[in-house]
Design goal:
The protein is an alpha/beta fold. The chain is built from 4 helices and 4 strands. The protein has a 4-stranded parallel sheet with strand order 1-2-3-4, sandwiched between helices. The two termini are about 25 Å apart.
């Protein structure tokens, strides 16, 4: 059985826990309860260890989230911990905020990254299907890497 470690990162109150619980079907969508996160950059390398992908979640309705999202992306991808294909960027729209699917003004190279909008109130299955596609690509990558490792051991 293959296992993949996927990190959900992003600014405070962006919807990371709600989305992670929804994707894993671990709980119903309820009111907001803050989750204790890891807010110290000195701990990020420990989080990254053995991870296969990163989902960056932000609330496009909060301007400061765009800058924070760039910081998260810069750390995990521009410092070459992971490849761009291992990133899923989600603009999460909270219930009642409307579902403006206009792309936010992200700076390069983040603006070239695939962006998925999520609104669990209006169209929950759309984000689930996008996450499944992302997860399949991560699993394929993990499987190919494992196969290469096994072949190198044999030869």
């Amino acid at each position: 059985m293959l296992k993949a470690k996927i990190l959900f990162v992003g600014p405070c109150e962006s919807g990371k826990t709600v989305l992670a619980n929804f994707m894993t079907e671990s709980s119903d969508i309820t009111e907001y309860n803050p989750t204790q996160g890891v807010r110290f950059e000195s701990r990020w390398p420990a989080l990254m260890k053995d991870s296969h992908g990163v989902v960056i979640v932000f609330n496009a309705d909060i301007p400061s989230h765009l800058k924070e999202t760039e910081t998260w992306y810069s750390y995990f991808f521009q410092q070459e911990f992971l490849q761009n294909t291992q990133c899923l960027l989600i603009a999460h729209h909270k219930p009642g905020s409307g579902s403006d699917k206009e792309n936010p003004a992200l700076a390069p190279p983040l603006n070239k990254q695939k962006l998925v909008h999520s609104n669990l109130q209006d169209d929950p299955e759309e984000i689930r299907m996008e996450f499944i596609k992302y997860l399949r690509s991560i699993i394929n990558s993990v499987s190919e890497s494992r196969d290469r490792e096994e072949i190198s051991i044999i030869t």
